[in-house]
From TrEMBL:
Residues 21-293 form the AAA+ ATPase domain. Pfam families: AAA_15, AAA_21. One of its GO terms (molecular function) is ATP binding. This is AAA family ATPase.
Length: 317
């Protein structure tokens, strides 16, 4: 797991230092405070090779965006147009990634750094002894049901995992009896039994069910080292948020997955706190991002500070 992260001159961050990260981290903040930028920085620290797919991982991009996207990664207007990302992990070991703008690759400054990628005049370096982590993102944009089939099949392969998924879905919609792979003309699709005369396609089962299947399939079926869940509450009624958090907490702990989720919902934050308060280990942290002037800042809140914020009705979203 990442225990701490430091970001310098990356997108809107002049400097951001976050320590005491948890198994599950909920990122909150107003619009344009850097939530997506933080997830992009963590992605590069986990696996620098994912920079090629970074434009469409969290942001809506279309057309030829590469050059326009990458040239804005180093903070605009900084005296030194070089981003530096660092993370301390539970090994313990340190990870370091540099994004350098300009033709001179000597800016990396160390023989221990490897020149791994270039787009236009943007160069990426990382430590030569770099272990890449498997990262998966659950976007706020609904993916095609077809793209979920493989992960879903892996999720329901083990009986206990299938029962966990059905139990969570049943708490969201009491009509649900099972969820299975079906096929028409050899093309598999996910189908849900809601008590009708035949199972219905997942796409017809409602946004809450669709979203929960996507989240659980990403965690169990993909088994990433790090899972991002953008706007976790999207499509889910506030009364079902406790169920979603129960599943996320249980699966993340059992499979050793570190989760970074974003939210704009106070109900989502309260549901997360209540869920982890009932667990043996309170392994939830809230990363609060905010803006001071034109600079994005942030801090990590532990249980004591989360409880104080909720009790005092301090705005964390």
């Amino acid at each position: 797991m990442f225990q701490s992260i430091e970001i310098e001159r990356f997108r809107g961050f002049s400097r951001l230092a976050l320590s005491d990260l948890g198994r599950v981290n909920l990122v909150v903040g107003e619009n344009n405070t850097g939530k997506t930028s933080l997830l992009e920085a963590i992605t590069l620290l986990a696996n620098p090779g994912m920079i090629k797919g970074l434009p469409g991982l969290f942001r809506a991009n279309a057309g030829d965006v590469d050059e326009r996207f990458y040239r804005w990664l180093p903070k605009h207007g900084a005296e030194v147009e070089q981003s530096e990302l660092r993370a301390q992990t539970s090994d313990p070991s340190e990870r370091r990634v540099l994004l350098v703008k300009g033709g001179s690759t000597s800016a990396a400054g160390s023989e221990s750094m490897e020149h791994a990628w270039q787009q236009g005049d943007i160069h990426l370096f990382h430590d030569k002894a770099f272990t890449r982590l498997f990262v998966h993102a659950v976007s706020v944009q609904h993916r095609s049901p077809d793209s979920m089939v493989d992960a879903f099949a892996a999720t329901v392969r083990a009986y206990d995992d299938e029962q966990l998924l059905v139990s969570l879905l049943n708490q969201v919609d009491g009509r649900i009896r099972s969820v299975r792979l079906d096929a028409i003309e050899s093309k598999p699709f996910i189908a849900v039994d809601v008590g009708l005369r035949e199972r219905i396609p997942l796409s017809q089962a409602g946004q809450g069910i669709y979203r929960l299947v996507a989240i659980v399939s990403a965690l169990i079926g993909r088994k990433p080292d790090i899972c991002f869940i953008d706007e976790l509450e999207n499509g889910i009624h506030y009364t079902a948020l406790a169920t979603v958090w129960k599943g996320v907490a249980e699966i993340a702990e059992r499979l050793g997955i570190q989760v970074f989720a974003t939210t704009h919902s106070r109900e989502c934050l309260v549901a997360a706190h209540e869920c982890f308060s009932e667990r043996e280990s309170y392994d939830l942290r809230v990363i609060q991002l905010y803006r001071i002037g034109d600079a994005a800042e942030g801090r990590t809140l532990d249980r004591k500070h989360i409880e104080a914020a909720i009790a005092g009705d301090i705005e964390l979203r």
